[in-house]
Amino acid sequence: MTEATRIRAQLQGDKAQVRILMAHEMESGQRRDASGKVVPAWYIQEVTVTHNGRTLLSADWGPAVSKSPYLQFMLKGAKVGDRIGVSWKDNRGATRSDEAGVLIA
């Protein structure tokens, strides 16, 4: 099981600032370990962010994304208590889904 995705959504006027930190090693498959063996590729391939169950964004990622990827964006029309969800799938088939509510800043 992977570490929980950290989601913070804070209302600022009529917009919410959404910050997401996904815990994942994100190995590119090009690095070598101490013994000289190639470390196998292991990275998030698909990311979906939802607002109250409606898809806000979906992204296809590759091995060039950094370890523990971070997303931040502003969301218009959010209200206190709305739900922001994040789900991802990596190239080994592992998945993770987490959700948090919008709070007042």
Automatic annotation (TrEMBL):
Coiled coil: none annotated. Residues 8-100 form the Sulphur oxidation protein SoxZ domain. InterPro entries: Ig-like_fold, Ig_E-set, SoxZ, SoxZ_dom. SUPFAM superfamilies: E set domains. This is Thiosulfate oxidation carrier complex protein SoxZ. It comes from Acidovorax lacteus. The lineage of its organism: Bacteria, Pseudomonadati, Pseudomonadota, Betaproteobacteria, Burkholderiales.
